[in-house]
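Fresh eyes needed here. Have a critical look at this protein's tokenised backbone.
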Amino acid sequence: MTIFLILLYTLVLSYVGLMVTVIVGMFRPVPQVRSRNRPPVSVIVPARNEQSQLAATLESLAAQHYPGSIEMIVVNDRSSDGTEAIIRSFCTRDERFRLVNVSEPDRRLAPKVNAVNEGIKNSSGDIIVTTDADCLHPPGWIEELVAHVADGVVLVVGYVESTRLDHARNWRERFETADWFSLMLASRSMLRLGWKFGSSANNQAYRRDAFDAAGGFGAGGRAPSGDEDLLAQRLGRLPQGNVVFAESPAARVVTHPMASWMVLLQQRRRWVSRYHHLVHYQRQFMMGIATLGVQSVALAAAIVLTPLLPAMAPWVFGLWGLKIGTELVGMYLGTAQLGRADLWPWTALVWSLLHPFFIATIVILSLLGSGEWRAGAGGYQRHFLRRQWRQLKRRLKDALLGT
């Protein structure tokens, strides 16, 4: 039991350290540099079997009042419902909309990444903006994102929020809203600290010339959802490649809450599946993700086991209390800074209490199956150790030839 407690404390305290870093990032000053340029923009919307929510998404895009040239590229990725008909109806009534059909999966790119890539190939704007087919956008969304593309900025990460609590129908939706908020706080702080680790595919804008200079999605495009975190890290490695966070209300996108706990867990499992392709990620980023996942599993297991090992209870619940306290400090500061007082205090508290069990469940589900994006395609598995072995042999060979 002693060894387990030492391991548990090491993991959870490491996670608490990450949360303290997020809190520090909240107070990091950020220069407010805005561009007055309004270059041509291409909005890419991948869609597969989205007929229930797509019309509302496209209506919000049709209401955009961007002063420059704009095109909406809606990619129908092998839908079997009325998705294509909805897209065609918008193309008929608004010349800014264009339909791109994907009929076959790509062997080199994961399904969703392939859909986005096809949209990019069929677009012409200097700025590429991506979103999802189940999101709603304020009228000034595109203009606000583009205003953040100042000199040296290669990627703008937009703020994503779920429904406001006065519209939430139950505690599951409240929990999901708080979880989205926590992700935004972490992303915002990391970028303020100069760590270009993540983005949100449903609210981001990047320069086409930067995308081309980085070689597009590259090998990381084979991993699920390589159009967000992996792309952010790829663009961030460019010389003077600045990545900024757009948090103003005009830049916020609202995503619909999931229909049930099971659907929410399946969505998050898809997200975690991308981390199975760890060879493409920066090591510091993966260390943070691994810390979050492993400590959640360990802490959830310890809490469940305390009735069987009562001597462990004070240590486990004390540690759990420290974790909850740190998270609540971050949530309190974040809700004050970003105008989400509706999340404080009860929703934030319930989210923090359930968080280790939620993450542990997702981690376990992701190990049982990849849960890749629902477009479906042949599975892709990149073996990290195999590649490391190949790289080691290459370095040894170069060293020998050098001597």
